[in-house]
Amino acid sequence: MKQQVRGRFAPSPTGDLHAGNVFAFLAAWLSCRAKGGQMVLRMEDLGHVVPGAADRICRDLERLGLDWDEGYGAGGPHAPYSQSERLERYKEAIQQLHKKGVVYPCICPRHSEHGGLYAPHSGEYIRYDGFCRGRFSAYDAAQREIGENTGRFPAWRFKVPDEEIVFVDIFQGGQRWNVWKQHGDFVLARHPEGLGYQLAVVVDDIAMGITEVIRGYDLLDCTPWQILLYRELAPDHPLPEFGHVPLITDAAGNRLAKRNGAATIAAQLDSGTPPQKIIGDLAAQARWVPAGTQLTPAELLKYYKPETLKK
Ligand code: GLU
């Protein structure tokens, strides 16, 4: 039996949508709907959250014609769909990984001589040297080393195997990453409760039965980390397909983000720009339709070709 395709939108409610997010969501929606798949919307609200942003994101997706079958606002069998309401699951996953011996408590602070951070000026990653690997038999022992009432907690760090992670990205083609050589053991959670982006995404994508993960190119380098987690958390579960779409830029080649003043999608819609124009402009950038075309995502389905997004 062929597996039901399940795609997802995974917005972080840090503000209103901009064209870059919408382009990734449009690609995720088209890829999934073209195969008759179901879309899930999961709200990734573990970090900084702007009050009201989650509901505005949903409203704007709806105004654009990007719908979902299950998830935030729509309910479904895998509820809740907000990460802030799923903390128990992340904690359990950490325990599961700890039992398997693939994570360990680490007392190195964020800025540590042992590495595991991006160099402040060059932006280059300084590999973690493995200082805490094998040092503590239990989390409590690591906590005692830091001190009980310091307000600082040991992190959970993942033991990365020395091997190449190989996968084929739908748009970026063949990938080969050696996380061990490039990053060393990475932090899964900075907190005993297991809060951490990589972990939460993988736990949720497994639980929600996601079969394709389509998102912006900026998340390509997290994928090998996530594949390592998949292998440990769900060894019998097929990996989803991964596809990282190019980031949309403005005429000057700058990445679109709120911080460089790009008008949000909400602002464009509120000032009367037709949703079909927003979709049409993104579709023209992807070379699915000629410039100036206005259409809905449903109408765009017949022109969608993943090939034009390939490198
Ligand atoms: N919540 C993440 C973001 O908005 C996306 C995570 C993902 O798609 O895996 O950047």
List key phrases describing it.
alpha/beta, 2 domains, 311 residues, Glutamyl-tRNA Synthetase, domain 3, 31% helix, 10 helices, Rossmann fold, three-stranded parallel β-sheet, binds glutamic acid, three-stranded antiparallel β-sheet
Q: Which residues sit in consecutive blocks of at least 5 with pLDDT less than 50?
A: none
**What structural category do the secondary elements indicate?**
alpha/beta
Largest sheet data: 3 strands, parallel
The number of helical segments is: 10
The helical percent reads 25-40%
Strand content: 5-15%
Mean pLDDT: 93
Shape: elongated
Please identify the top-level CATH class of the largest domain.
Alpha Beta
The strands making up the biggest β-sheet line up spatially as 1-2-3
How many structural domains does the protein architecture include? 2
CATH architecture of the largest domain: 3-Layer(aba) Sandwich
Please state the CA-atom Rg, rounded to the nearest Å.
21 Å
Distance between the termini: 32 Å
CATH superfamily of the largest domain: HUPs
Nutshell version of this structure?
The chain is of the alpha/beta class and 311 residues long. It has helices spanning 19-34, 53-64, 87-99, 139-146, 179-182, 197-207, 223-233, 265-270, 275-285, 297-300, and strands at residues 6-9, 38-41, 70-71, 103-106, 117-118, 125-126, 155-158, 165-169, 173-177, 186-189, 212-216, 241-245. Residues 10-12, 44, 201, 215, 219 line the site of glutamic acid.
